[in-house]
Design a protein that fits this description.
10-stranded mixed sheet; 382 residues; alpha/beta; Rossmann fold; single chain
Length: 382
């Protein structure tokens, strides 16, 4: 890969401000706008799935042997994939550009751009530990729902406990903190909440923002794989909230993610008092909006998505008093169903769930468990 250095001043083309400006009404997302753009029918092809029409979470390995999991897994991936939509058929070769680089006592932080879709550049902070003599494991650090995006995991802005990229780099990992679509330097000036989804759906009427996020993380892995100091066989992902479900969906659909950590990223769909968060309050998975008033008819729930990660290691940390993702106790049933899959695949130690009293947060104990989990499965870093 060729790395080009361009003047920092050119970055004004990517910079945005979300405060003190008029909102462009052409860049305001709503479920009704999505329906009008895509003319999307109510999904029906997956209504025959065992989970559809049931309040309880159905088992995923009942009546099958370990060797049959591949077939069951493919069926689950097809079902969830229909809600995520169709990614573009063309995947361009990835190229990277370094905008600027800053050296610290134990690592270098670079602002990089790399290829997404044709004509698209994805901005990210790349952390490189000093003194690398052989390829290191790498971790993708996904931000929460904050407009500064990658600035928080990079430790430049926001909560210190969410500065995953910086902390893991100091532990010896190569880390990459990209902006998700609709956030950071990918947020268009004057756009509303998820406003970038409007032109996105006009270009990709059969795709979803969550599907795009998964695809973009795949592009992040493509980029990491070009770096000679990255061990492509030891790549992980970590995230809180938006970054947590970004990690879960990405690991579910990209087996190059060898380990995942998800903090406070979901509650069981059937126990969620606000299931429209996925379709109306955000543009993440609009098709879920068709089930807003009868969520039990959804053909999947979160135990299906987490099970797609098996047998690759996955840790979830769950706040029992989470005001954003309430009914944290419902995740215990999700975890029990996922454990059944990992056990059937002879990998019971590769899944863990840590429940703690408290609100939506990445607590010191959660963080310690997360770092130890990553070290265990793709370390040692040094």
């Amino acid at each position: 890969m060729r790395i080009f250095v361009i003047p920092v001043g050119l970055m004004f083309l990517l910079s945005i401000s979300v405060c003190g400006e008029d909102i462009n009404t052409d860049l305001e997302y709503s479920f009704e706008i999505w329906k009008s753009i895509t003319n999307h029918p109510t999904p029906s092809a997956v209504a025959d799935q065992p989970q559809a029409g049931k309040k309880e979470l159905v088992g995923l390995v009942d009546g099958i042997e370990a060797m049959d999991w591949a077939s069951r897994r493919a069926d689950i991936a097809r079902t969830v994939g229909q809600f995520l939509g169709e990614p573009p058929a063309r995947v361009p070769a990835v190229q990277g550009t370094v905008v600027h680089s800053e050296r610290f006592s134990d690592h270098v932080r670079q602002l990089a751009l790399y290829t997404g879709e044709p004509g698209e550049l994805i901005p990210a902070y790349l952390f490189i530990p000093l003194g690398i003599t052989s390829p290191r494991p790498a971790v993708i650090c996904q931000h929460q729902t904050v407009y500064p995006g990658k600035e928080e995991p990079a430790g430049i802005w926001g909560k210190p406990e969410l500065a995953f990229a910086k902390e893991l780099a100091q532990r010896g990992y190569v880390t990459l903190a990209p902006d998700s679509i609709c956030f950071g330097d990918r947020k268009v000036k004057g756009s509303g909440h998820y406003g970038e989804a409007v032109p996105f759906f006009k270009q990709h009427p059969n795709w979803s923002i969550m599907g795009k996020q998964v695809w973009d993380i795949g592009r992040a892995i493509d980029f990491l794989e070009t770096l000679p100091y990255v061990d492509a066989g030891r790549i992980g992902s970590i995230g809180h909230s938006h970054g947590a479900y970004g990690t879960i969906f990405s690991q579910a659909f990209d087996d190059r993610i060898r380990v995942g950590v998800a903090s406070c990223g979901f509650t069981a769909l059937r126990s969620d008092p606000t299931p429209e968060r996925w379709s109306h309050l955000t543009a993440l998975i609009p098709e879920i909006g068709f089930y807003k008033d009868h969520v039990n008819d959804l053909p999947f729930d979160f135990h299906h998505i987490l099970a797609l990660c098996a047998p690759r290691p996955l840790l979830i940390t769950v706040a029992l008093d989470d005001e954003i993702f309430p009914n944290g106790d419902s995740v215990k049933e999700v975890a029990d169903r996922v454990r059944e899959v990992y056990a059937r695949l002879d990998a019971p130690e590769a899944f863990d769930a840590f429940f703690f009293p408290g609100d939506h947060n990445f607590t010191p104990e959660s963080r310690d468990r997360a770092m130890a989990w990553i070290d265990r499965w793709i370390g040692p870093a040094k």
